[in-house]
Specification:
Elements lengths: L5 E7 L17 H9 L1 E3 L2 E2 L5 H10 L3 H4 L20 H6 L4 E6 L9 H8 L3 E4 L3 H15 L6 E7 L40 H30 L6 E7 L14 H4 E2 L1 E4 L9 E3 L3 E2 L3 H8 L18 H4 L11 E7 L3 E8 L3 E6 L33 E5 L17 H17 L12 H18 L1
Parallel strand pairs: 1-6, 1-7, 2-10, 3-11, 4-5, 4-6
Antiparallel strand pairs: 2-9, 3-8, 7-9, 12-13, 13-14, 14-15
Helix pairs in contact: 6-7
Amino acid sequence: MQRRPNVLLIHCHDLGRHLSCYGAKTVNSPRLDRLSALGVTAERMFASAPQCSPSRASLFTGRWPHSNGVMGLTHADFAWDLHEGERHLATRLRDVGYRTELIGVHHESRVKEDHLIAEDLGFDSVRTGGAAPEVAERTNAALDRLADSEGPFYLQVGFHEPHRIPGRQDPPGIQGFIGDHMDPDDSLGVDVPPYLRPDASAREEIAELQGAIRYMDAGVGQILDRLDALDLTDDTLTIFTTDHGLALPRAKCSLYDPGLEVAFIAHWPGGGWTGGRRLTDLLGNVDVVPTLLEALGIEVDGAPQSHIQGRSFLGLLDGEAGAGGRTEIFGEMTYHDYYDPRRCVRTDRYKLIANFSSAPGFMDPSQSWQHRCTAVDEGIGHEDYHPAVELYDLHADPVELDNLADRPELAAVRAQLLARLTAWMQEGGDPLLHGAVAGPLHHRTLDALRAAHAVAGA
């Protein structure tokens, strides 16, 4: 049997599609731009959720957050985790003979010590943490070791940048993007995304974001250079992606497109994923696992608790005539910093969002007391709190500012999309259909109350 290709999956925090190869011309991202020019780029891939852990849980299991159990953050007292029996991509690949290693960011299951993460997810080795240069150095050391292994390897590499990071350069009350070890980058100018007010404070913050992206891009480049130097590129299926949109208002932690949009670049010369092709179909990051498994010739087991819900788009990557993507994509948020349950369905033209709480119109992802970027609709004509339903015509209103949910002429569209969203929630066993969802901290506090009550009553 012919040896299966290696898999190198590189991901980062909070990037969205903010790269030059996706049209952000003031961003310095030469190495990822080159990877895009060599490989295949998905122009319209969306995350399953606009926050770190739920989206990553889908990326690495091929299952929706409300099905795999990660409906909120996995660290500290947030404490969400994959359901027992969920199968991570690393487990599936190790079962067929892959060497498996994780370096850098892990945020798709309960955060624990590295050796416990390895046991839970199916990795031979896990080493978390580190800024981009350190992650790149560790990855290159791993590549040096794995290059001589008899079987193929799966190397999962996570960059923290461009996540916000505190540092002495930050003004009081602000958590920026550059910490103490990066610099802003306005060498190509600064373009403020259209959903934000283009004022001086926004340009200052976006320059920091651009500096963090440039820093991460250089780390990716070091890894790709080592892959070339070891003559592994042709036989390695290389993917670069991210978890969700930028950590800016109306992006991360929202179900508007800027919160769900993700970069996805694939390069595999041995499999024909080359030539700078661009895919324009709707795709979801929940589709990545089934696509990889099909590309590698790995059959999916039928265990109900690990049933893959994504759909392979291998035909698109292979350039097959007639291959297509999705007619609709879905997204969800349940918990992030606080409980804000929302679900959405998006077609080529319309986005419908169903809101289940009276939370503010969009969650603040800045991790700051003071804000430099503000949304274009903040305080000017947009609901301060969620309406029950939002409906946007993405062709006429790509920034999603004009809620058409109550327009009589769109009643049929609204009803159809609500029905499709309901069917999707039912198919995945979404607990939100049965009432409010309690998080891990809720259950832990209840246990403390019950234990205290039992002692008092003894």
